Amino acid sequence: MKYDRYLERAIESGATHAAVVDTEKVVTANWVRLKCQYGCSTYGTRLTCPPYSPAPDYTGRMLKEYERGLLLLYRVEAKEEKKRRKAVRNAVADLEREMFLDGYYKAYGMGAGPCNLCRNCDLTAPCKHPDRARPSMEASGIDVYQTARYAGFEMEVVRSWHDTCALCALVLIE
Question: What's the domain count of the chain?
Answer without folding.
Answer: 1
